[in-house]
Every structure is written in C-alpha cells, then in structure tokens.
Amino acid sequence: MGEDSVAPAPGSLRKTCPMTGEVGVDVDVEWPLARRGDVVPEACTWLREHKPVARIRTFTGDPAWLVCTHELASRVLHDEAFSMSALAEPGGRLQYAPLFPASNRSSVKEMVGAGLRETVMQALSPHAVKEATGAFRRKAEALLDELTAEGPPADLRARFTQPYTASVMSTVLGLTEDHGRLLMDGFDISIMTVPRTFEGAQVNLEKCLARTRAALLAPDAVDAPGLLGGLARFRTENGTTPELDGEITLMINNLFVAGGLSTAAFLLLSLLQLATHREQAEWLRAHPEAMEPAVEELLRYSLAIGDGLPRIAVRDTELGGQAIEEGDLVLVLVEGANYDPAVFPDPHELDLTRNAKDHLTFGAGRHYCSATYLARTHASVALSAVLERMPALRLAIPPEEINWRTGWIKRTPERLPVLW
C-alpha cells in the first residue's frame, strides 16, 4: 500500500523514556517509523503536509525534531547551524545508545593533523576503485557460480550480498577476506538501535580492533594492498606512537563499518526491488548502459536508512517555522525527502530512467559521503552480474512474508529467498 492512501498520523502522543520511566513531552509521531523496507512508512505524507518539523522521542527517550521535506532536509544537511561532529560531545541528546565510547567516533577529518587524510582519500578515490573493479566482478561471479550450481531457492543476503560486500570492503581496505567476514559478522551487534549499552557490544568492538591492529602491526603489512598497506607504509616512513596506532586501527574499522553497512543494505534492497519490478529489471538487463542512472533511482527509492540522519543544532535557529534551540537533536527523514513529490513526480513509481540525482541517500553538504563512488560501483557491478546470471530473478516467498529486522540501524530483511 502506498503512503497516499493512509489516514493522518496521530499527534500529541505521550512518550515514556526507556531510561528513566519518566513520561516525556508530547510527540507528533511514534519513532521509529515502520521497519518494512519495501513499503514507504504510512506517516510520511502526513508529516510532510502537516508536521514537516515534527516532535519525536528517540530510542533513548531524548526529544528530537524530525525533518520530513526535501527542502528542509537539504537545509539541515547544508546549514552550519546543524553539526554532525557535535554528536560526539558528552552529555548531548542521543539518537540511540552508543555501543562504543564517544571518543572512538574517529573520522577521516580527525586524521588531518596526523597527515593521514591523503592516504585515506587515495584508497577511496575513483582511480583506486576502478582498479579494484575487476576483483569485485570476480567475487560476484564466484558467488553466483555457487548459487547457480546448487539451484534455487537461495538466500541472497547470506549467500551473496553479505559475502560480496565483505570482499569489496576488504579489497579496498587491504584486509584478508577472513578479516572482512569477521568485521561483517560484528555488524549484528555493533550497530543496533537500543536504549542502553550492553556487554557484548564492547566485547565485539575489542575483538574487531584486536584483529585489525594485529594486521596493521604485522611485519608484512607494508606490502599489503589497499588502505592497510598505505597506512603501514606511513607508519614506517613517519614514525608512530601507540596512540596513533590505536587511531589508525579504529579508523580502518570505522571505514569498514560505514562502507560495508550502507552498501550491503542498499544492494539487498535493490535486488528486492528488481525481483518485484520484473519489467524494470528486464529493461535494465536489455540496457546495461543505463546502469548509472538506474543506480541513482534505486538509491532514491531505497528505504534502507531506518533511523534518520542526525545533526545537533549549535545555535538557536528556526526551521520550517519551528524554533530550534542550541543543543537540540535534529533527524533528517531520508524517505520523507526522497519521496517528496515536490522534487520527484510520482515518487512511489520506480522509474530507472528518472533523473534522481537530487536524492539525499548519501547526505549532503560538508558531510556528503566521501565513498560515494565506491558505493555506486559496488552496486553496479553486483547488479550487472545478477541481471546477467539470474534473468528471471523473483522472490521465493510472498513479499508480506519477508521478516524485517528490528532494533537495527538499517531496514533490511533477515533473509531474502529468491528463485531465478
């Protein structure tokens, strides 16, 4: 059912804080929205039309503003009044409980002082990704060889998108495939959306960091491909400290998580859309030259981002007629922006010929994702391989029987059984 057919979302709901049990201020809509990744949440139209800046309570019970139109979402992502880096400051409002210390929220920007930014950006550059594209395709073909040899049905998440993404990220970062699988398996714990932390999250983080640190400090690391080799050579040529080694280790892990998490979820939902929009899939298979704009439309259409893009207001301001105070948490509802009919006519129609370049799936402004070329290439290679090898791709179960994961940062099926 599309969002245009729904009844208005209720306003002025009372929300209880899971941390304290205290009943909080009124909210305009329950959060999070529906977790199905194949149906636009029913509240989106109502929010855009009646509450473009809506009151919600996050997973931790903190108050936040939910921004639902493309115009206002773009402003939040571009305006310096709304900061991403401020999210790591202690005592601030939270989107969900951090499963690692705030001091561990390392970014490429923080590596500038150590002289590492250039090394990182070279590893993620279009040139480096193009050189690795052959390896991406070989991995996709090898996985499809296994699936087609066994025959349908098969779970695309476990047998294709997860191992393929782990391999792609390992190739770019210079990790072994076993190392990549270990980090990918850790996603199930490390990026949950929960009201409070738990022991297993820290144990998982320590396990992943220990594996990465050992790879960085290994004698042969300087000969490794990808980012790991570049960083190991940087250490050798410029000297290092235990603290810097810790930052480098954390950065490698964070890049794997940030890149692998988003690309795996997007690829899986893209395959779901192609399996349920058979005419669109057939058209794309017959027009492989159209893959680039098709990926942009699939990015717009994707509902993978299940919890909004967060920012903190660093000064008092105004947004859509609503007063925003310094320290307020603001969440950009990406599906609200990407399905805004003011920007995308007939937004519920998947149209692989659409010019969807204005989607906000990668964010915008200063924090526009630096690995967008990698994300697009990752998807293009995999989708091309699947369309060629599985021309009759379709779901093996009714769409309404797909089990959608809850308590996780992305909307994603637990399994995606398919026929071909």
Automatic annotation (TrEMBL):
<dbReference type="GO" id="GO:0004497">
    <property type="term" value="F:monooxygenase activity"/>
</dbReference>
<dbReference type="GO" id="GO:0016705">
    <property type="term" value="F:oxidoreductase activity, acting on paired donors, with incorporation or reduction of molecular oxygen"/>
</dbReference>
<dbReference type="InterPro" id="IPR036396">
    <property type="entry name" value="Cyt_P450_sf"/>
</dbReference>
<protein>
    <submittedName>
        <fullName>Mycocyclosin synthase</fullName>
    </submittedName>
</protein>
<dbReference type="Pfam" id="PF00067">
    <property type="entry name" value="p450"/>
</dbReference>
<comment type="similarity">
    <text>Belongs to the cytochrome P450 family.</text>
</comment>
<dbReference type="InterPro" id="IPR002401">
    <property type="entry name" value="Cyt_P450_E_grp-I"/>
</dbReference>
<dbReference type="GO" id="GO:0005506">
    <property type="term" value="F:iron ion binding"/>
</dbReference>
<dbReference type="GO" id="GO:0020037">
    <property type="term" value="F:heme binding"/>
</dbReference>
<dbReference type="InterPro" id="IPR001128">
    <property type="entry name" value="Cyt_P450"/>
</dbReference>
